[in-house]
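pasting for ref
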Amino acid sequence: MSYPTFIGNVEGDFLVLTDEEFHHAVKVRRIKEGNLVEVNDLKGNLFLGEVLKIEKKKVLIKPLEKVEVKQPNYRITLYQCMPNQLSKVDDIIEPISQLGVDRLVPVVCKNSAVGFQEVEKKIPKWEKIALNSIKQCRRLFPLVIDKPIKLSNISNDDDLKVVFYEKEKVNKLKDFINSRYSSCSLVIGNEGGFTEEEIESLKSKGFVTVSLGDYILKMETAIIVGVCQTKFILE
């Protein structure tokens, strides 16, 4: 049985909901004293508890047990080239959070029509979407969203490094299925795709170009398909 999940704090012997979580619990979810709820303390703990008291500005909950949440033994970083309409990113935060992406790095590439300041202004909204999404999918920690970087500054030492490229006709993710990886970085382009220079730059850093199939996919579709295929390989 699933219970409503909220973000709260441990205060003494109680779990406490305040501010926006108080409003969401009382005004939106209409919880009552005696109801069972789950509370995530954002410190790696998820508790099942009973609502003891609803006060004017906070909800007091008695913890009954700690809920075991299975954690993946791998991590996924998504380097996402920023689309011309940043509102498109609003719509992908929740699904990539539910799919288990650990870190989102906004990337400004040659075909990006937006700048660093525009992207940075959106980050608080994206972080809020990511935080709210963990209440639905039972993640212990929200998706981490970095400040934007240039594509030329992408650099890491993950076990598997992939760039999904529409001109790649040979390599597919299934080619990596018999190997074991604990970390993976994905690079996905925007509407304009990548320039040849950008692809060569990524290859020089150890990224492998991979095809997502015969069709040219919209950015939003490519993200979901790419992450799902990656999870299949990692799991």
